[in-house]
Amino acid sequence: xxxVATATALxxxxxxxxxxxxxxxxxxxxxxxxxxxxTTGIPWVHAELAAPAPRPALLVLRVHNRAGIxxxxxxxxxxxxxxxxxxxxxxxxxxxxxxxxKEPGRIQIGQRVWSRRxxxxxxxxxxxxx
Length: 130
Known about the structure:
The protein starts with 8 loop residues before the first strand and ends in a 5-residue tail after the last strand. It is elongated. It has one helix and eight strands; from the N terminus they run βββββββαβ. Strands 6-3-2-1-8-4-5-7 form an eight-stranded mixed sheet. The protein has one helix at about 105-115, and strands at about 10-15, 30-40, 40-50, 55-65, 70-80, 85, 90, 120-125.
């Protein structure tokens, strides 16, 4: 079994009831972390939909710890007909008390939060303005 801190694949569990925006059969099974790109210590993640998106969708990603608590959140848009998803602006949840830290401290906190990931959930919704 891969070390959680260095593993790049993150399993996905569906979040809530199925969405009419993106059929359950389109959802990817896992996300892959990109160690070359990060935002405040949290790597970007990528996935491929199992089938092209039938319509534009806003995907909400939540990364959970072992207790099932969401610790990281991000959003990504996918256009109709596309399969590739990139979550490039992920942020740790519940760390508002550390916003005064300088960037090196925020990166260290982001890395620590990311190291506690176990699985992710995805929820699809219609993009705003549609």
